[in-house]
């Protein structure tokens, strides 16, 4: 089961990583195109140092694309961001492009923001705005005129950067929410019973083992409660499995409500579970006294004081047979506690149903115990 959960969560993470890799690879390719266009634009001027710089950056970004394609992309976003900042800063500070060349800053800003997580993209874009602001002040007299002033360019650039960061912020929130829903759905599939919504057997046993280990150091009572719906096979036979499923849902809801009222289930997501078929299991921990424990059990056996009604009419008065095993008195391991509680439940069922029974009370009834297990074997064969 752990493999099942991990595999599906890993698949979600891989899909997200692949989308990001494709974006980084595309932005790296666009950046190479921009550098190549600049190289052709300034080749005749004889800027050999910039030619070498462009070639070096292009080689780095080519390697970055290769890393994205091979899915070893741990630092590809950082590499692209550093190359963009470094090359753009050098280009702005050490030569004077035409006013039209400044519009390349817009796609570069877009890449700096969207290839990074929102927090890092916002910080990098803020640094980039500072660089562009410094540049516009230094080169304003050369590049700009009265029709298009440096202040107008800078204002438009800041507005553009702010809007991109807002879009990136909400897209990140949406992505995080989708990932959360995906992981929650996977978790529910792995840990919850699909019919009743209670914990399934696997998640209950993992949680209960921890609670039992902790119970060794506490003074309260820890009790394993095993419950079975009386005459459930007749409901399925007479009314069909759809009605049977509705009954199981109702049982789960009433048991959950009953155990919530008691206040001795520290984790309602795991303390009550559907064990199998029409069997439910509950671990009560740190119950202060035996008197309070019996009061809780009385509440559980009294949850069906009204009939279940469906399209087929009244089914019958539902009742529960309940078996109880106490930690350290009856058993000290999870598997033994479950076995003892199950045994006590069959004793309660064989003794008239609609009641609870402690495991300790069945030891002096060896002949009846044999009848219980014979009856249990017959029921198991019938269910199969």
UniProtKB/TrEMBL annotation:
Chain ranges passing through the membrane: 23-41, 47-66, 78-97, 117-136, 148-170
SUPFAM superfamilies in the record: Nucleotide cyclase
Protein name: Diguanylate cyclase (GGDEF) domain-containing protein
The organism's taxonomic lineage, starting at the top: Bacteria, Pseudomonadati, Pseudomonadota, Gammaproteobacteria, Vibrionales
Residue ranges annotated for the GGDEF domain, each copy included: 220-361
Superkingdom assignment: Bacteria
InterPro entries reported for this sequence: DGC-Regulatory_Protein (IPR052163), GGDEF_dom (IPR000160), Nucleotide_cyclase (IPR029787), Rev_trsase/Diguanyl_cyclase (IPR043128)
Entry annotated with the keyword Membrane: yes
């Amino acid at each position: 089961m752990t493999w099942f959960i991990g595999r599906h969560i890993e698949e979600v993470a891989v899909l997200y990583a692949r989308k990001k890799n494709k974006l980084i690879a595309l932005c790296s390719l666009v950046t190479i195109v921009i550098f190549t266009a600049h190289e052709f634009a300034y080749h005749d001027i004889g800027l050999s140092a910039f030619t070498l710089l462009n070639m070096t950056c292009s080689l780095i970004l080519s390697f970055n694309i290769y890393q994205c394609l091979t899915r070893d992309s741990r630092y590809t976003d950082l590499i692209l961001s550093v190359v963009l900042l470094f090359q753009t800063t050098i280009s702005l500070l050490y030569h004077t492009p035409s006013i039209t060349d400044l519009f390349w800053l817009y796609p570069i800003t877009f890449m700096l923001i969207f290839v990074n997580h929102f927090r890092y993209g916002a910080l990098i874009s803020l640094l980039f705005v500072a660089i562009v602001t410094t540049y516009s002040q230094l080169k304003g007299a050369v590049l700009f005129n009265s029709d298009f002033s440096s202040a107008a360019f800078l204002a438009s650039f800041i507005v553009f950067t702010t809007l991109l960061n807002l879009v990136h912020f909400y897209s990140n929130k949406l992505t995080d929410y989708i990932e959360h829903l995906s992981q929650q759905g996977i978790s529910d599939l792995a840990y919850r019973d699909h019919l009743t919504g209670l914990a399934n057997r696997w998640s209950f046993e993992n949680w209960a083992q921890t609670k039992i280990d902790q119970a060794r150091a506490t003074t309260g009572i820890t009790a394993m409660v095993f419950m079975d719906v009386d005459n459930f096979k007749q409901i399925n036979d007479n009314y069909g499995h759809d009605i049977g499923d509705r009954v199981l849902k109702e049982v789960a809801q009433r048991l959950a409500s009953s155990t919530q009222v008691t206040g001795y289930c520290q984790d309602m997501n795991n303390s009550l579970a559907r064990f199998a078929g029409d069997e439910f299991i509950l671990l009560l921990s740190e119950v202060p006294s035996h008197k309070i424990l019996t009061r809780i059990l009385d509440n559980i056996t009294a949850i069906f004081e009204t009939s279940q009604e469906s399209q087929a009419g009244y089914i019958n008065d539902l009742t529960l047979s309940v078996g109880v095993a106490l930690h350290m008195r009856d058993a000290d391991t999870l598997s033994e506690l479950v076995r003892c509680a199950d045994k006590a439940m069959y004793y309660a069922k064989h003794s008239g149903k609609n009641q609870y029974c402690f495991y300790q009370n069945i030891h002096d009834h060896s002949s009846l115990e044999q009848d219980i297990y014979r009856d249990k074997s017959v029921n198991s064969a019938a269910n199969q």
